[in-house]
Input
Amino acid sequence: MHPHIQKLYDIAAKHQRKIIGLMSGTSVDGLDIALCSIADNGTNTKINILHFETISYSTDFKNEVKSVFAKKQVDFEKLCLLNPWIALQQAKMINDCLAKWGVTNSEIDLIASHGQTVYHAPKILHQQENFGNATLQIGDGDHLAVATGIITVSDFRQKHIAAGGEGAPLAVYGDYLVFSKKDENRIMLNMGGISNFTFLSGDLDASKVFSTDTSPGNTIMDQYVQKHFPGKYFDENGELASSGTVNEALLTALKQNDFFDKPFPKTTGPELFNLDYLEKAIQASGTTSISNADCMATLNRFSADTIVDAIKKCFNANEKFVLYASGGGMHNPVLMQNISNQLPGIKIKTTADLEINPDAKEAVLFAILANECVSGVGYHFNDKKAGIPSVTMGKISFPD
Ligand SMILES: Nc1ncnc2c1ncn2[C@@H]1O[C@H](COP(=O)(O)OP(=O)(O)O)[C@@H](O)[C@H]1O
Ligand SMILES: [Mg+2]
Output
């Protein structure tokens, strides 16, 4: 047996593993690094976040990624170069964090790397008859493994697509394993660039678990801020949105898109929700003279309304649940207020109430996917229902 297979076997046989979960989402804001101690597996999984940090990307890094991000036409050589380069940049961030935390690389069992999404193309978006669902994350796992000396599990989304999904949302797997709670229906709402939620039934029935993307979280707001407010990357604490007034005509136009009529579950990305999308809605609504502040207020409501609409469409009005928010959008008080205004009587909490830092949640969920990849016993979702194939995800890269 190759010694690295023996090492993997030993890791799989442990009761407790140290796994670094990495997340770099469509906001391209930074790398979330969560060092987790994970005991057991499946619905017995127990998580302890030992260290967490988001390493903000430099302007250069963001510009490199954005040169190929969510674009139909790119410099193909640049895309090829970025695949190892992003991994090496991220490996350095991990090595630096471990040194700062006083943890040696050899103490870590696994890295779970999401990679950087550069294009998300579910069939509902590309609509090309001869092609199925597709998605592409770069920042290759072999490079991470060699540069950190740590076995790396990566590229989780391809198996999901291979088994009939759209490659997202993947949060549902970890949400089910870690956050299911007897006698409490839960909606786990993550608001990154795109928003998605998982429904967890209080009777713990896996066949009732449901998950979908809803619409933009921060993505169009972020893109607008970056274009119109040089030096700013996002609407910190919703200050820009709160200085404007919602333009109802533009809001209505923003909601006119086929995507919102497609059945759930469905996924999307900045490939659809971008400044061109906004521009078309501005033209259609005749609001070309709208102020930046009013536009930000309207985009904020657009995210909130479409998140709430998706939740309402998926559940009966009399179904009780508690909503647990996570992701950067929960730091935007205007967005949170716009959501809660439309969900009277629903308790809104964050995953901090469940002892998981809401900024770390997605990275932790990828650590759980890696834990399941090496030591899990499989998922038991209702495979007849679209979107949650019962497959184990991730590709394994060895450092030697
Ligand atoms: N204090 C804040 N006020 C308003 N928005 C915030 C704040 N902090 C983070 N955000 C938003 O959250 C985004 C990052 O969210 P994140 O969960 O990391 O998304 P992703 O997974 O797409 O990277 C930022 O780009 C920004 O839009
Ligand atoms: Mg992020």
User: Anything to note?
Assistant: The first strand starts at residue 16 and ends at 24. The chain has a mean pLDDT of 97. Residues 76-101 form the longest helix (26 residues). The chain has 14 helices and twelve strands.
